[in-house]
Amino acid sequence: MQMEFSLGLIEVEALGHAVFVLDAMTKAADVEFVATERRLGGRLVTLVVKGEVSAVTASVEAGKELAVQLGCLKAAEVIARPHKEILKFLHLDEEKKTAPKAESAATHVDTPKAEEKKTAPKAKEKVSKSAKAAENKKSSQKEEKK
Question: Where are the chain's structural domains?
């Protein structure tokens, strides 16, 4: 079964370059940034965008052009109407049966899952507790100086 959209992939050296390339890609055409994958501690970064074939092609061309200017291009490809098995490989399948492996450091851009929403307040609580502790320490130090 083929999808009704296309995928564009660009692999570049360095996370900083990837940010510049992604900016150029998303400004060049109406595409959606869907995933990034970092390898070798961020020394190789693959960016994945999706959209209509013409938009993805324009986006990848703009990204390639900038990456060549920066001297960081490793690979670039457009996949028109990808097969659903390709989405599993990129961890973009709708059923989410194949989760990214930790060593791939893959990041996928979508809405947070229900479990993530539940854990977010706990993180804020920890931050606020440590912030309160720091404030208490500062105020006690001020009192000692007086």
Answer: 6-108, 114-146
Whole-structure pTM value: 0.64
pLDDT reported for residue 21: 97
**In this structure, which long-range contacts are made by residues 67-75, counting pairs with CB atoms below 8 Å and at least 24 apart in sequence?**
67/10, 67/12, 67/17, 67/21, 70/12, 70/17, 70/20, 70/21, 72/12, 72/13, 72/14, 72/17, 72/21, 73/10, 73/11, 73/12, 74/11, 74/12, 74/13, 74/44, 75/9, 75/10, 75/11
> Could you give the CA distance from residue 103 to residue 79 in angstroms, rounded to a whole number?
25
Superfamily name with CATH number, domain 6-108: BMC (bacterial microcompartment) domain (3.30.70.1710)
The rounded distance, in Å, linking the Cα atoms of 144 and 142 is 5
Read off the pLDDT band of 78 (50, 70, 90): very high
pLDDT at 102 over 60: no
Q: In the predicted model, is pLDDT for residue 22 greater than 70?
A: yes
